[in-house]
Design goal:
By secondary structure, this protein is an alpha+beta fold. The chain has three domains: 105 residues, Schlafen, AAA domain (Methyltransferase, Cobalt-precorrin-4 Transmethylase, Domain 2, 2-Layer Sandwich); 256 residues, Heat Shock Protein 90 (2-Layer Sandwich), CATH 3.30.565.60; 72 residues, Orthogonal Bundle (Arc Repressor Mutant, subunit A). Helices cover 37% and strands 20% of the residues. It has 14 helices and 18 strands. The chain has a six-stranded mixed beta sheet, covered by helices on one side. A hairpin with a 3-residue loop joins strand 13 and strand 14. The longest helix has 26 residues. 31% of the residues are buried.
């Protein structure tokens, strides 16, 4: 809902933003706080003129419902419309979306993503303008078929070209889809560059690798390089065979790498980057979170997953590399906690997304129940504090009661987390004691 004192271009921008989001209404003749303007009047031809102006300034044209309501004895005009089925809608060539209670101009990437989402498609489904079938390695397609048959009840019996057609990677006119190039190219795939480095300090690199191959191969080679540069200990259990324990849970690292490759924005000219340090690993991907997702949504699991590259995700699932959309973040977090490590830190950066995982600092432990309890408590506190900081950054001005409702914990627990963040100088309280809230510093 939006309130405007008079009809102008801002009214149309708000309607466009609502149409591109979840719908809404604009009250014309009211102040920002919903108080009707005493001097507002509606002329005999005002509504037809305004409606025609909305139609002429939007592409495709929108036709909102219009009613006159009497609020506190004053007649005001209400324009309303639902979410538009074909998006995005433009106002004089510019596209807007609704974020909380404000209109934001959309970037070119957001415009493209919203258009593809409208047609239940994604960029990787469309024909590649640069590559042809001759650039595809059919032996890689055969390996994909073999991987798929290992987990399928009904085995694939078709030849590679037929398989590509059935998965819509080879079009009727002989063109290949973008996903086909990414998954099965016989040549270097510059669009999918991953730079990996082992660092001794933030600026000093000890070893490096640049990958520019098909996405299936990149998963294995990235994990191999990471495994080469992390520690592995042997635990004496009393059995003849020693138990191996890696510095990080390998299954969770693999899940992070798979997510990085599947959800990367391949239209972005940037590279995926993996930095391995003594006690942490950072995984960076070009391409911001899409579909209106926030970090708080990801960590809480309160979101409906959408794949930026649907065809790539489908083929990865068909090959048994991923199980389903949307459950990866929770599995990764739980794997680290069960391993006795702190939860990964997820960050939304200006042009990308980053996941940072931390190794446990080596220590000599004499064993015992108290150690397990202390580790569990410390991990739980760290997770809560980290997630609270992300929640405040995503929702500036949030108060303690709202935090309590979000995390479903006691107010005392939230206040303890808040105190830790305040003592570290990460957050500050602004406003009156009863009506104010917390902001990131």
């Amino acid at each position: 809902m939006e309130f405007k004192s008079s009809f102008n271009d801002e009214v149309i921008i708000s309607l466009v933003a609502f149409a591109n989001s979840e719908g809404g209404c604009v009250y014309v003749g009211m102040e920002d706080h919903g108080v009707p303007m005493s001097n507002f009047t509606i002329g005999k031809e005002s509504i037809p003129i305004w409606t025609n102006e909305i139609k002429n300034k939007t592409t495709p044209s929108i036709f909102p419902d219009v009613v006159v309501e009497v609020v506190e004895g004053i007649a005001v005009v209400v324009f309303s419309l639902p979410e538009f089925p074909i998006k995005p809608i433009a106002f004089k060539g510019r596209y807007y979306k609704r974020v909380k209670n404000a209109n934001h101009q959309m970037s070119l990437q957001e415009i493209s993503d919203l258009h593809l989402k409208t047609y239940a498609s994604s960029w990787d489904y469309y024909p590649s303008p640069h590559y042809e079938l001759a650039s595809i390695a059919l032996d890689k397609v055969r390996r994909f078929i073999a991987s798929s048959n290992e987990i399928r009840e009904n085995k694939i019996q078709d030849d590679p070209l037929t398989v590509l057609r059935k998965f819509e990677l080879l079009k009727e006119n002989g063109q290949i889809a973008n996903a086909c190039h990414l998954l099965f190219s016989k040549n270097e795939v510059f669009d999918a560059t991953i730079s990996i480095g082992r660092f001794s300090t933030e600026t000093s690199i000890k070893d490096s690798l640049v990958l520019q191959t098909d996405l299936f191969t990149e998963v294995e080679e990235t994990l191999t390089f990471v495994r080469k540069h992390i520690n592995k200990n042997y635990i004496i259990t009393g059995d003849p065979k020693r138990e191996e324990r890696w510095e990080y849970p390998l299954d969770a690292l693999r899940e992070i790498i798979v997510n990085m490759i599947v959800h990367r924005d391949y239209q972005n000219a940037g590279e995926s980057i993996v930095k391995i340090f003594d006690h942490k690993i950072a995984f960076y991907n070009p391409g911001c979170l899409g579909n209106g997702l926030t970090i708080a949504d990801l960590t809480a699991g309160t979101y409906i997953s959408y794949a930026r590259n649907k065809k790539v995700a489908d083929l990865f699932r068909e090959a048994g590399i991923i199980e389903k959309y949307g459950s990866g973040i929770q599995r990764i977090t739980q794997a680290f906690l069960q391993y006795g490590l702190s939860a990964p830190v997820f960050e939304s950066l200006p042009n990308g997304f980053q996941v940072t995982v931390y190794a446990k600092v080596p220590e000599t432990i004499a064993g015992g129940v108290n150690v397990g309890v202390n580790v569990g408590v410390n991990v739980g506190v760290n997770v809560g504090v980290n997630e609270l900081l992300m929640l405040i950054q995503e929702n500036p001005g949030i108060n303690v009661l709202e935090m309590k409702a979000y995390f479903k914990v006691t107010q005392r627990t939230v206040e303890r987390w808040v105190k830790i963040l305040k003592d570290k100088g990460k957050i500050e309280f602004r406003g009156a004691p009863k009506t104010g809230g917390y902001w990131g510093v």
